[in-house]
Amino acid sequence: MQMRLRSGGTEGLLAEKLEALITQTRAKQAATMSEVEWRGRTVPVKIDKVRIFLLGLADNEAAIVQAESEETKERLFESMLSECRDAIQVVREELKPDQKQRDYILDGESGKVSNLQYLHSYLTYIKLSTAIKRNENMAKGLQRALLQQQPEDDSKRSPRPQDLIRLYDIILQNLVELLQLPGLEEDKAFQKEIGLKTLVFKAYRCFFIAQSYVLVKKWSEALVLYDRVLKYANEVNSDAGAFKNSLKDLPDVQELITQVRSEKCSLQAAAILDADDSHQTETSFQVKDNKPLVERFETFCLDPSLVTKQANLVHFPPGFQPIPCKPLFFDLALNHVAFPPLEDKLEQKTKSGLTGYIKGIFGFRS
Predict the structure, then answer these.
(1) Is residue 317 part of a domain?
(2) Which residues form the signal peptide (predicted)?
(3) What's the structural domain count of the chain?
């Protein structure tokens, strides 16, 4: 096992020979293994391939913990999952249609499923738990890459919060499948444990969804999601109690709470600064006076009123403007002119006027 671990995985001729040697040794040990105990119930193991897998389960888990590189861990996870799938397939073949009908029938006295079906549930539990650990390990690697990434490095695709969200979605789906395993419907402790694990991974999924909203400056949505993270984390802390041992291998919820509180302060500051910048940008281009459009053609500014019925285009009615008027000539010399006397002419005109009138009546004309 140590040589296989140092070889870096399951590739190469030496690694293949080591795998064959380990398998042969486990096959010899499998002859002494007759049963397995899980969650207070002991079930017989009669299938050799399942015995070999269960004997090497602890060694595989220890090898994964001791692996130094992420590539080695990934190979060991894949190898373990492949062996588990093979074991499940063998058990599934034993559950033939006619026998399967009997195996699924609950015993009226004990209320338990058959041993073969319970063994199938146990192997499925191992497969799903291993898949969760593998995805969790990948999520930790992506988190480290997010913290260490350099924005100017465009040579390769940098990790994003959306990648972590996808991994946590898969983990939550695996937890849902764990709750549906036959034979564990009445196990309240198991249901409670899986429920707490679901809350932990929901909190982390919600945290990275909030991070993705922060990147696009959706401050309100991110703040609501951070509050949801705190809600999930506080529920885990209040309900953990007797399940702390089963939750110790999961991501630290208390560390997440501290990080969320820090992120909330940073988010609120960024939101205030962004709102101030956007306000300054808008006001710098908006109309600051009541000048009509005709007087500010040379200056660009945003005036939403121009597309309304009250558009300020020109002054109406137009204002009065002074203009030069037509000159007036006053005859000031008239006051200094001496006219000749006309009294004699006025008297003569009066006399001749009466005589001429009488003559005109009687028809005498001169």
Answers:
(1) no
(2) none
(3) 2
Evaluate whether residue 199 is within a structural domain: yes
pLDDT in tens, the chain (366 residues): 666 656 555 556 666 777 777 776 766 665 566 788 888 888 888 888 888 888 888 888 888 888 878 888 888 889 889 989 999 999 888 877 545 455 455 444 445 788 888 889 999 999 999 999 999 999 888 888 887 765 555 556 677 888 889 999 999 999 999 999 988 888 888 899 899 999 999 999 999 999 999 888 888 899 999 999 999 999 888 887 777 777 777 888 888 899 899 988 888 888 888 776 655 554 545 555 678 888 888 877 777 778 888 888 888 888 888 888 888 877 788 888 888 888 877 766 555 555 555 555 655 554
Domain that holds residue 82: 22-100+114-147
Residues 140 and 193 in one domain: no
Q: Nearest to residue 59, comparing CAs of 16, 13, 17, 3?
A: 3
Q: Which of 225, 248, 278 is the last residue of a domain?
A: 278
pTM of the model: 0.65
The DSSP letter of residue 180 is T
Alpha-carbon gap, residue 27 to 10, rounded angstroms: 19
103 near 116, Cβ under 8 Å? yes
Residue 344 lies in a domain: no
In a domain, 173, yes or no: no
Query: Tokens representing 103?
Result: 């195996």
